[in-house]
Amino acid sequence: xxxxxxxSHYARQGFLIVRCEHVPELNSKVVDxxxxxxxxxxxxxxxxxxxxxxxxxxxxxxxxxxxxFLYVESRxxxxxxxxxxxxxxxxxxxxxxxxxxxxxxxxxxxxxxxG
Length: 115
Fold this sequence. Notes:
Blueprint: E1 2-10, E2 16-20, E3 29-31, E4 37-45, E5 52-57, E6 69-72
Antiparallel strand pairs: 1-2, 1-6, 2-5, 3-4, 3-6, 4-5
């Protein structure tokens, strides 16, 4: 868990505006000090030194969270094992074709100019 910041106000558009201590990832889960799910980070805006985050609340009374510290679940994204393995052919190269190596006959024609 990492402290996100304190809730500044509840906007008319239905977002909790949080004054952040760091830049959170979008779609990160936001919880309170009792680890109750509050909402999801939908936007980050404002100055780089101290940004704001718009949190889409998933609670019945979001106005009760004004002035309360919220926390973001820290999740490490790893891409290990997510890439597809490419089988190599007889010559040791992969079977995938790259766009640079494709034959010139398969290229799309340039768009016609109008006007």
